[in-house]
Amino acid sequence: MYDFGFFAYDGKEDFLETSKAHWNPGKTQSWQDFGVDLVIGRREGYFIYDISGKRLINLHLNGGTFNFGHRHPELVDALKRGTEMFDVGNHHFPALARTALAEALVKTCADNMRYVMYGSGGGEAIDIAIKAARFAKQRRKIVSVIKAYHGHTGLAVCAGDQRFSELFLSDRPEEFPQVPFNDLNAMEDALRKRDVAAVLMETIPATYGFPMPKEGYLQGVKRLCEKYDALYIADEVQTGLMRTGEMWGVYKYGVNPDMLVTAKGIGGGLYSLGCIVASEACGGWMKKDGFGHMSTGGGAELGCIVALKVLEICGRPETRSLVHYISDFLGQGLREIENLYGDFFVGIRQNGTVMGLEFDHPKGAMHVMKALYKNGIWAIFSTLDPRVLQFKPGVLKTHELCAEILDRVEASIGEARREVKGSGSRRAA
Question: Do the beta carbons of residue 208 and residue 181 sit within 8 Å?
Answer without folding.
Answer: yes
